[in-house]
Amino acid sequence: MPFGLSVPTSLDRFRQGTTLLLLLSGALCLGAWQIPAAQAQSASPSARSTTLFENVRIFDGKSPTLSATSNVLVRGNVIERISTAPIDVPSRTDAQVINGNGRVLMPGLIDAHWHAMLVRPTPAMLLASDIGYSTLLAGVEATATLMRGFTTVRDMGGPSFSLKRAIDEGLLPGPRIYSSGAIITITSGHGDFRQRSDLPRTIGGMLARVEQLGGSMIADSPDEVRVRAREQLMQGASQIKLTAGGGVASPFSPLDVSTFTEAELRAAVEAAENWGTYVCTHAYTPASIQRSIAAGVKCIEHAHLIDDATARLMAEKGVWLSTQPFLDLSPASGLGPAEQAKLAQVVTGTDRVYALARKYGIKTAFGTDILFSEALAKRQGAMLAALTRWYTPAEALVMATSTNAELLQLSGLRNPYPGKLGIVEERALADLLLVDGNPLEDLDLIADPDRSYLVIMKDGRIHKDTLPR
Fold it and tell me: Is the CB of residue 461 less than 8 Å from the CB of residue 439?
C-alpha cells in the first residue's frame, strides 16, 4: 500500500478542490452519472414546489399500524398538512398530485452506520487513487443509496465533506449525510493501515497516506486526540468517531485489545461537547465499551462481543447502541485468513448483542457498515429486513426511521439538517417513500427497492416516480 507522500500544502488542497469541482461540473454536464433509461426520472428530480399525495395509508415512523386512508400535502421541503379529508390546493396545475391508490407512504430510511466514501473502492484502490476520483465514485454510490430508499446516512468515517456539500447543493442526488470525518485511531489501532516498515512514527511528522486522504487520523496522546477531533469539527463533522478497540479489516489490530486510554477518549469527548455534539466509538468488547462509557461517550458502534454486565451498564447510563445484523461471512472474500477469523468471531456475537439490547431496553439504532463492495451495498435493504430475526417488521422499521432520527439529534447545533426526520407528520421534513405493498406485514419489500418503491422523495424533491398512470 502506498504511504509516505508529502503532506499537502494549503495551495495543494486548493488545487485539488478546484480540480474536483471542475471534474464534478464536467461530469454533470456530460452525463457522466448516467442512470439507465428505465430510471431516467430518478436522475432529474422535480423542482421543489407543492406535491399532494392522495389516498395513501401512512406508516408514520412510530406507530406499529397504518393510518386510515389519508392525504398528505408537501410544500417546499416540509410536510404541511395531513388529513383524512380531501386537501384542496389553490391550483392543481401548480401542484404535482400523486394518487397512491391505497399504497403505503412512509418515511425515508436512515442508515446509522454508513461509509459513503468507502463502499465501492477496495482499500488498495482507495489508497492508490486521488481524492477527486474517489469522490466521483462515491457520488455514483450516493445516488444508488438514495434509490434504495435511504434518504439519510450517518457517515462513520471517511472524507465525505465534499460529497455531502455537492449533494446538499443539488449537484447530484444522494442522501443527507451526517459526517464524522476521519476516524481517529491509535498506532496499530483499527483504521491504521500502515505497514511495519512505516515505523517508527515521528510525532508531528509526515502523514501516512490514509491520513492525507482523510480516511483516518492517528493520535497517541490526549493532546493529539484533541487536535484531531477539533480538525474534524472545523471541517463540519456532526459527531466524532474513535476506535476504542480492535477491528476486523485492520492488519495489526486484534479484536481483544483496548486502544485509547480513558484520558485520550475523554479528550475527544471534551472537544466534542465544547462544540455541542458527541463522540461515538467503535468497540466490540466489554473492556472497550466500559472504558468508552467512563469517558463520556454517548454511542457505541457494534458491541458484538458485549456481556450481560456491560449491556446493563449501557442501559443504566442511557448510552446508545448502534449495531448491525451481521449474519454471514460474505464480506470475507477480500480478507486474509486472520481477518476472516476475526469476522467469524464478530458474527457469532450478533444474536447475543440483539438479545441483550432487548433484555435491557438499550436505545438501539440500525446501520449496515458496508465496506469495499458495490455488490454488498445492494443488500442494504436486505440487512434491514434481516432484523425480523429479533424484531417485528414494525419494530425494525421504527428503528430505521424515528429511532435513528432520535440518535441524529444528539449532534445538537452541529446538526446540518434542522427539522424532524424519520417521521411522517406535519412540519416534518419531506423524506418519503411510496411503497407498493405493506412493509409492516412483509419487510422483504425493503430488500427489493427497484420494485417496491414507486416514489422516492427527499427534501420535497421527487427523485423517482414510476407510479402507473
Answer: no
Overall CATH class of domain 110-390: alpha beta
List of residues 6+ apart from 235 with CB closer than 8 A: 161, 179, 181
In the numeric block, the cell 458527541 is attached to 278
HEC-encoded secondary structure of the chain: CCCCCCCCCHHHHHHHHHHHHHHHHHHHHHCCCCCCHHHHHHHCCCCCCEEEEEEEEECCCCCCCCCCCEEEEEECCEEEEEECCCCCCCCCCCCEEEECCCCEEEECEEEEEECCCCCCCCHHHHHHCCHHHHHHHHHHHHHHHHHCCEEEEEECCCCCHHHHHHHHCCCCCCCEEEECCCEEECCCCCCCCCCHHHCCCCCCCCCCHHHHHCCEEECCCHHHHHHHHHHHHHHCCCCEEEECECCCCCCCCCCCCECCCHHHHHHHHHHHHHCCCCEEEEECCHHHHHHHHHHCCCEEEECCCCCHHHHHHHHHHCCEEEECCCCCCHHHHHCCHHHHHHHHHHHHCHHHHHHHHHHHCCCEEECCCCCCCHHHHCCHHHHHHHHHHCCCHHHHHHHHHHHHHHHHHHHHHHCCCCCECCCCCCCEECCEEEECCCCCCCHHHHHCHHHHEEEEEECCEEEEECCCC
Residue 371: the pLDDT is 86
- Sequence ranges of the domains in the chain: 41-108+422-465, 110-390
- pTM of the model as a whole: 0.87
**CB half-sphere exposure, 446, CA atoms < 13 A:** 27
For the chain, the distance separating the N- and C-terminal CA atoms, rounded to the nearest angstrom, is 53
User: Would you tell me how many other CB atoms lie within 10 Å of the CB of residue 14?
Assistant: 11
d(CA 161, CA 269): 21
**C-alpha separations of 374 from 131, 145, 152 in Å:** 18, 10, 18
What whole-number distance in Å separates Cα of residue 10 and Cα of residue 14? 6
Distance between CA atoms of residues 164 and 150, nearest Å: 15
Show the cell assigned to 259: 486502544
Mean pLDDT of 56-61: 98
* 44-53: pLDDT as tens digits: 455 558 999 9
The reported pLDDT for the residue numbered 113 is 98
Domain topology for 41-108+422-465: Urease, subunit C; domain 1 (2.30.40)
CA atoms within 13 A on the CB side of 130: 11
358 pLDDT more than 90: yes
